[in-house]
Amino acid sequence: YAEQVGALLGHLGVDRAVLGGLSLGANVSLFAAAEHPERVRGLILEMPVMEWAVPAAALAFVPMLLAAHYGRPVMRWTSAVMRQVPRTPVRALNSVLDAASMQPEVMSAILHGVLVGPVVPTAEQRVAIEVPALVLAHSNDLIHPFNDARNLADQLPSGRLVRAHSPLELRLRPERLTAELSDFLAD
After folding, report:
1. N or C: which end of the chain has fewer CB within 10 A?
2. How far apart are alpha carbons 67 and 85 in whole angstroms?
3. Nearest to 43 by CA among 130, 123, 154, 155
4. What is the side-by-side order of every strand in the sheet holding 40-46?
5. Is the pLDDT of residue 112 over 90?
6. Taking a C-beta distance cutoff of 8 angstroms, is the pair 164, 144 a contact?
7. Which band of pLDDT confidence, cut at 50, 70 and 90, is reported for residue 83?
8. What is the pLDDT of residue 169?
9. What is the DSSP letter of 85?
10. What is the pLDDT confidence band of residue 94, given thresholds at 50, 70 and 90?
11. Spatial separation of the C-alpha atoms in residues 108 and 66, rounded to whole Å
């Protein structure tokens, strides 16, 4: 995914950009910064998935991987049905519908990569990322542990941690976090 980010920036004619993402998107942004530091001006990383998340990720994703692998006929039928469901104005709901619409081979490949591939740059790579980074996180989430975000903010030479009240704060009551994002981007 980091290579695709670099290719997109090149296609758009953007030399350097502030990259960011949520969950796996935060990790992709980290990889892009580690692999192509000349293309990245800053990072906004919301709820990264790192070392502390491994047990919860395994509990959540291994059954899904097994279902996608061994239950392909049922999942093909389910994904075909879900592709027919009209999308809504609610983006979060559409994300669930889109995930349920994936072909089992695609879902299996993604889950396999998340479970056994490198999901985040190594600690050595992280400490070498020198661009300013704003890390957003909240408590009480096993897939996105607050400790992962705190450790990441500490490892990044120019990292700063902002604690969200909940995973929904930026979506439902964005004023406080939007001000943090605006100040970060202005700097």
Report:
1. C
2. 21
3. 130
4. 17-22, 40-46, 133-137, 159-163
5. no
6. no
7. very high
8. 92
9. S
10. confident
11. 8
Cβ(3)–Cβ(17) under 8 Å? no
pLDDT of residue 69: 85
pLDDT at 153 > cutoff 90: yes
Per DSSP, helices labelled H in the chain are 2-12, 24-35, 54-70, 72-84, 91-101, 104-116, 123-127, 146-155, 169-172, 175-186
For the purposes of burial, counting CB atoms within 10 Å of the CB of 149, is it exposed (0-12), middle (13-18) or buried (19 or more)? buried
Angle between the 104-116 and 72-84 helix axes, to the nearest 10 degrees?
110
Positive or negative, the CA dihedral 162, 163, 165, 171 is positive
Nearest to 32 by CA among 61, 5, 69: 5
Pairwise CA distance, residues 140 & 95, whole Å: 22
pTM beyond cutoff 0.90? no
| Tokens standing for residue 59 | 């509990």
Query: What is the 8-class DSSP label of residue 53?
Result: G
Q: Are 135 and 48 in contact, with CB atoms under 8 Å apart?
A: yes
Angle between helix axes 54-70 and 104-116 (nearest 10 degrees) is 150
